[in-house]
Amino acid sequence: MRKKLVVGNWKMNMTRSQATAAIESLLLLIDPNTDVEVAICPTYLTLETVAHLLRRSHFHYGAQNVFWMPGGAFTGNVSASMLADAGCTFCIVGHSETRGRFGKLEVPESTLSYFSETNETVNLKLKALLYQSIHPILCVGETLAEREAETTDAVIYEQLKGALDGIEGVEFYNGVVAYEPVWAIGTGKTCDSAEASRVCGFIRRALTEIFDADAADSVRILYGGSVKGSNAADLFSQPDIDGGLVGGASLDADEFSRVVRGA
Ligand code: PEP
Prior knowledge:
The chain is 40% helix and 14% strand. The protein has 263 residues and is an alpha/beta fold. β3, α3 and β4 form a beta-alpha-beta unit. α1 (16-29) packs parallel to α2, α7 packs across α8 (193-210) and α10 runs parallel beside α11 (253-262). The longest helix has 18 residues, at 193-210. Phosphoenolpyruvate is lined by residues 9, 180, 185-186, 224-227, 245-249.
């Protein structure tokens, strides 16, 4: 039986004092006996603050990105072994904001190459994380243009195939896949719960083909894209959705605790 998982992706938000206040509130608001696994992914700079505050709690924490090389002259980057040393349980990989796939373009097109993670670099990152026993949260999802062209399933299949190339099913047992339709991220437009569940079911069937039934059955498949307290229960009660990756709503302790209760 897969345990529900709710992950807060704080993105580029929260100073150390804001992070302290948010975690202190969450510890009061979320029932420590909940059956739901909860994780927070802060910025690298607030990881240590969050780790310290969560040290005796049931919460996990993780990072929002990683570089695949073990160390060396890679200015501005952080390796998987550094994340393991910081006690990270999870790490997000292939988020649409790091792949440079924006639903609504908020940056000049010419700057997209700064972000452009590919299926190949996502694959290298996954391997580096698995080597350090950090559970990857692999994000996949289609843009609005791809949905309108009815290529959603094909796009997601290609993202999974490329990201998981050369990885064995047994290595990915604790892995997580997050279905994040790009057009739903930070837009307030949530994917219809039945459709989100259909795509998550498609992802599990793809994992069965790429790995095997046992591995596919153990992987948690999350939905992400404008999840909030008011829609969490509907989304998370769908048969193929094992929880959520939550951006905006994770910045507000009350709202995030409602999302966790929804799970
Ligand atoms: C995300 O960043 O992964 C996300 C789903 O954001 P939001 O909840 O704000 O749509």
